[in-house]
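job 3f2a | input accepted
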Amino acid sequence: MPTSRRLATATAGAALLVPFLLGCGALEKAADCVRTADAIADSVADLQRAVDGAAEDPGQAAEALDRIDKNVDDIQKDTGDADVSKAVDHLDTALDNVRSAIEGDEVPDISPVVDAAGELTKVCTS
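job 3f2a | predicted structure (126 res):
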């Protein structure tokens, strides 16, 4: 999927630059943010596949949402950065909307999740 590849590429490229831009303490926190944002990008790709195959296995979408929620919680508790918190809030809202759609037997629009995950990746790598 092109969107998940862009997220993964941006995350990987930014991870290579982080050591040159930050000091040790900040480096560790930024690297954690990048790793978690990368895991979220992977989970978003899983969510897209699960939504596409929801008729065959509706539980996969819920599992993908749970994985994203866990990664979002990890970032939320480890950061004091206002921009990261704002991006996480946007992702939380998008995830809640997808979860509500799935629970209401509607086809969810995951584009806000993709956008919010991209925003988080951008914030973690800037």
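job 3f2a | Confidence is low (pLDDT under 50) at residues 7-24.
job 3f2a | closed
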